[in-house]
Design a protein that fits this description.
The chain is an alpha+beta fold. It is 35% helix and 25% strand. α6 (223-236) packs parallel to α7 and α7 runs parallel beside α8.
């Protein structure tokens, strides 16, 4: 072995020993810092237990500590206790065992049914809008909050729950025995071809009869499949252009947004995400491309957005705009460009919670991050408070009418109760000018060239 080679071997061994020693020192320093943090937590917990003026709910205190640690990072990172985690899993999957009713806690009437969802156990059992739930399996709802009521109403499919119902015009409470089933929350709320003179609160010219409309309210596991099915039904009816309504859609699953984009693009980039690869700050990028299968025809497309269109909604809107596949109509979107990952956390005897942790940011096909900035529409059409109330009230009335068990029995649906602060707009009829603008833009694109 040459002297030069020997020197290099010794130098490499020395550098490796320094690296290992440095790593060991870093690990010891990190362990010491963590131990000091745990000591401080235990001391604070002891002081609260010993000296707080009232009896301490230790579980609530424990959850509060975890929630506080998560919230210190950013507003999208949160800790979910076990009950909240179960609820959120149902929300993202769109499925849960229950009755199929929307309920509110009305100040005057107590726990009240807003509407039974069509073709659910509650709908088939004959529960009606404005029915008051007086008791659940014999437990009074007088001082029960919505979260506790929802937990009692949900349960395994084929299990039974008895609701004691108070109904206007009926003197005595009536018991309804309802068998739970799997409830699917529909992310596609409204769809259909626009028909003159008015559809979905918009004034529609006769020549717009071949324009389809579909409203997507959130991005769940099956949202893309549900949207695909609605679009195919309209295509079978002769649809020649489409309006995708993402207004008031707060987002949902990244994978669902990618699948929705894939419905309209046969190839190319849809979105990319960048995350921290290690503690040194290096990043890694993941790029998602269209798969080319099941792509719908390239007919004119408009996407409606507003200030509540966020996250997954903005992924779709940004992709459609960057790729030139659609025009955006409405108002600037919310501006949430970060990606959250749900990490289960074992809590011993308390069950399983989860950490919803911000792990990256997403970028539109052009490489732009919209975090904190939002996406500007191609055609801006602003809504004031009155117009927004009109939009939400109109959607609510149509949903209640569609879900009301009495709609085919000749009896008019009950007038829906409005939540506080959501008073009906003035007598002047509401016209959805954002939807009307989208129709105008698409009609121009549909003219023969």
């Amino acid at each position: 072995m040459s002297r030069r080679t020997l020197v290099w071997l010794v130098l490499c061994a020395f550098l490796m020993a320094l690296a290992l020693r440095g790593e060991a020192w870093f690990n010891r320093a990190e362990a010491l810092g963590l131990a000091q943090e745990q000591d401080a937590y235990r001391e604070l917990r002891r002081l609260i237990d010993d000296r707080y003026v009232d009896e301490v709910d230790r579980k609530k205190l424990f959850y509060g500590a975890l929630e506080g640690m998560a919230s210190a990072l950013d507003r999208h990172t949160v800790f979910w206790p076990p009950e909240r985690y179960e609820s959120e899993k149902s929300s993202t999957s769109g499925h849960f065992g229950g009755l199929g009713i929307e309920i509110v806690d009305d100040e005057e009437h107590g726990l009240t049914i807003v509407t039974p969802l069509a073709d659910t156990p509650a709908f088939k059992a004959g529960l009606l809008p404005q029915d008051r739930i007086l008791a659940i399996d014999g437990t009074s709802t007088e001082n029960m909050d919505l979260a506790d009521a929802s937990r009692l109403l949900r349960g395994p499919p084929k299990s039974t729950v008895v609701l004691s119902i108070g109904r206007e015009g009926v003197e005595q409470p009536v018991d309804f025995k309802v068998v739970r089933d799997i409830i699917k929350v529909q992310s596609v709320q409204e769809w259909g071809l626009l028909g003159a003179p008015e559809a979905f609160a918009a004034r529609v010219p006769a020549e717009a009869s071949k324009i389809g409309y579909v409203q997507l309210i959130q991005f769940q596991e099956e949202s893309a499949a549900d949207l695909d099915a609605a679009i195919r039904r309209m295509e079978a009816q002769g649809m020649q252009a489409l309006i995708l309504d993402l207004r008031q859609n707060p987002g949902g699953l990244l994978t669902s947004a990618i699948d929705v984009c894939d419905l309209f693009l046969a190839d190319g980039k849809l979105v990319s995400t960048r995350a921290r690869a290690d503690r040194d700050g290096a990043t890694e990028e993941e790029v998602f491309f269209a798969r080319g299968e099941g792509t719908h025809p390239a007919y004119p497309l408009a996407v409606l957005i507003d200030g509540r269109s966020a996250s997954a909604s903005e992924i779709v809107a940004g992709c459609m705009k960057d790729r030139g596949r659609a025009v955006l109509v409405g108002e600037k979107s919310f501006g949430k460009g970060s990606v959250q990952t749900i990490v289960p956390v074992e809590l011993g005897a308390l069950g399983e919670g989860a950490l919803k942790l911000t792990t990256g940011k997403y970028y539109t096909p052009s490489g732009e991050s919209i975090d904190g900035k939002g996406i500007k529409p191609d055609y801006e059409e602003k809504f004031g408070d009155e117009e927004l109330r009109g939009l939400l009230l109109g959607r609510r009335k149509r949903r209640l009418e569609n879900n009301d068990p009495r709609r085919n029995g000749g009896e008019a649906p009950a007038v829906p109760a409005l939540p506080p602060g959501a008073e009906a707009p003035a007598e002047k009829p509401f016209h959805d000018t954002q939807l009307e603008k989208a129709v105008t833009v698409l009609l121009e694109q549909m003219k023969p060239k």
